[in-house]
Amino acid sequence: MQKIKLFDTTLRDGEQSPGVNLNFQEKLEIARQLERLGIDIIEAGFPAASKGDFQSVKEIASIVRGSSVTGLARSVTKDIDVAWEALKHSEEPRLHVFLATSPIHMQYKLKKTPDQVVETAVEMVRYATKRFPVVQWSAEDACRSDLPFLARIITEVIEAGAKVINIPDTVGYITPEEYGDIFTYLKENVPNIHRVDLSAHCHDDLGMATANSLAAIRHGATQIEGTINGIGERAGNASLEEIAVALHIRKDFYQAETGLTLPETKRTSDLVSKLTGMVIAPNKAVVGRNAFAHESGIHQDGVLKEPTTYEIISPELVGVKQNPIVLGKHSGRHAFRTRLVELGFATGDQQLDSLFAKFKDLADKKKEITDDDLFALVLQKQIGDEEVYKLDGLQVQYGMNNIPTATVTLRRGEEIIQEAATGAGSVEAIYNTLERCLDRELNLVDYRIQSINGGPDALAEVYVKIASESGEATGRGVAHDVLEASAKAYINSVNRMVAIEETKAKQEVV
Ligand SMILES: CC(=O)SCCNC(=O)CCNC(=O)[C@H](O)C(C)(C)COP(=O)(O)OP(=O)(O)OC[C@H]1O[C@@H](n2cnc3c(N)ncnc32)[C@H](O)[C@@H]1OP(=O)(O)O
Ligand SMILES: CC(C)C(=O)C(=O)O
Ligand SMILES: [Mg+2]
């Protein structure tokens, strides 16, 4: 059985999903869970992209031991140097360096001739291998590249020391048959190819990312790249959970397997969905809410008689299970902590105490505390940790024939700020009032709301993105009431904006 390595880029390509902005703590939570899932290589970020990315790659590289950790760099010495600083303490420092090889990217984006691209690629791989024991080289937009040129540049970067060669379908253009043919062509036309691992990196623009990745395996790929839940740039990346489960269920055909601990799949998927705010479609393969539900009578009858009549994947295989312990107001600390650990959260004693107090408050208002409620509690706690502005009071007057008016009390340290304003709707009235309290101009770029669980006592979760002259910041708020959740999300984004501005100000002083 062929062993396939899984390279997870949820924290890099996944974070390139529009609207996703993970903070330091959230990235650590995801990295720890990816390690538990059994991912071989975690791409923790793009260290040269920002101070925040640098810090999280560095931290993840120093704490994760069960998976290799890598970071992305352009083919420029500065990016490689920054990546080295972030990764040098990992067990086996590994760099992912890329350069585009398609005529369209070379001519219009890089403004380099093919010869210059080969020269740069070779020079940068040589430069990187002086420090990094493992260098992965990616031919960006490989699938729209001229194949003889692709074979030439790959031959040369292998000579320069690359140990892994990645063939990305950067724009999600290729079909399974063609992708397989590219791997076959490279195996036949790159004389030193036996020295490296061949990797596939697919995007889902035409809905073929999983099929293309599997085709690559049939034609010699030994590493597959993707993200959890398939999140990523534009239509997203290949879903690693789909590929791993497809290989497991159809090992008769693929004769290949991954090292994933498959029962960790659902938990990982839930964690990524909650922390990124990217909702999973109910019919999503492997991890969607409906993936194991049977709705129609004939199917239900069949499953009751013999589950395999309509189930090719057993729910237990990927960690989908009914929890026998129902959490509510009579639950104690042990059950509470056990469930948090089961959901993938590592909580210290101090954090547990304050979370437990919040849990009891919630249990007084709600009959049953679900996993989604627990996610919301933990997120709320993480969000609330660095509060510069705190919501102290909120009142909204709404009537069908009146202009909505909001009154808000904000606290900044000892200072109390109180204002009132109107708006076309209740949320706008709150946001106008908050802008007045803050005495600064902010643009609301995005506002999204979803309910956590159904029913009248469901929690509301709001995501916002705001912009000012200093940049953009996202925020989340969770509450029983949609207006309170809206206010909290806005204040959370303002607090993050303040943190960004303070970091920038400190950098300028230095
Ligand atoms: C296919 C992918 O997913 S690639 C990864 C994409 N991810 C990201 O871009 C997220 C992180 N990016 C960033 O934070 C920024 O783009 C940075 C910090 C990397 C660079 O920022 P800036 O220096 O302001 O450059 P900007 O992003 O505007 O333009 C990119 C530059 O890099 C060049 N470039 C692009 N790819 C590469 C490469 N692989 N190697 C070398 N140079 C490259 C472009 O040609 C352009 O150069 P130019 O300024 O000479 O025209
Ligand atoms: C950086 C590379 C590997 C990439 O994400 C792509 O080409 O899609
Ligand atoms: Mg990509």
TrEMBL record:
**Self-association and partners:** Homodimer.
Q: Which PANTHER family match?
A: 2-ISOPROPYLMALATE SYNTHASE 1, CHLOROPLASTIC-RELATED, HOMOCITRATE SYNTHASE-RELATED
Q: Name one GO cellular component term.
A: cytoplasm
* The protein's name in its UniProt record: 2-isopropylmalate synthase
* Underlying gene: leuA
One Pfam family this sequence matches: LeuA_dimer
Which keywords belong to this entry? Amino-acid biosynthesis, Branched-chain amino acid biosynthesis, Cytoplasm, Leucine biosynthesis, Manganese, Metal-binding, Transferase
The GO terms describing molecular function are: 2-isopropylmalate synthase activity; acetyl-CoA C-acetyltransferase activity; manganese ion binding
Q: Where does Mn(2+) bind?
A: 13, 201, 203, 237
Q: Does the keyword Calcium apply?
A: no
This protein's pathway reads: Amino-acid biosynthesis; L-leucine biosynthesis; L-leucine from 3-methyl-2-oxobutanoate: step 1/4
GO BP terms? L-leucine biosynthetic process
Q: Which CDD domains match?
A: DRE_TIM_IPMS (cd07940)
Q: Which reaction does it catalyse?
A: 3-methyl-2-oxobutanoate + acetyl-CoA + H2O = (2S)-2-isopropylmalate + CoA + H(+)
Enzyme Commission identifier(s): 2.3.3.13
Please give the family membership noted in the entry.
Belongs to the alpha-IPM synthase/homocitrate synthase family. LeuA type 1 subfamily.
Region annotation Regulatory domain: where it falls in the sequence: 390-510
What cofactor(s) does the depicted protein rely on?
Answer: Mn(2+)
Q: What does this protein do?
A: Catalyzes the condensation of the acetyl group of acetyl-CoA with 3-methyl-2-oxobutanoate (2-ketoisovalerate) to form 3-carboxy-3-hydroxy-4-methylpentanoate (2-isopropylmalate).
Q: Where is the Pyruvate carboxyltransferase domain?
A: 4-266
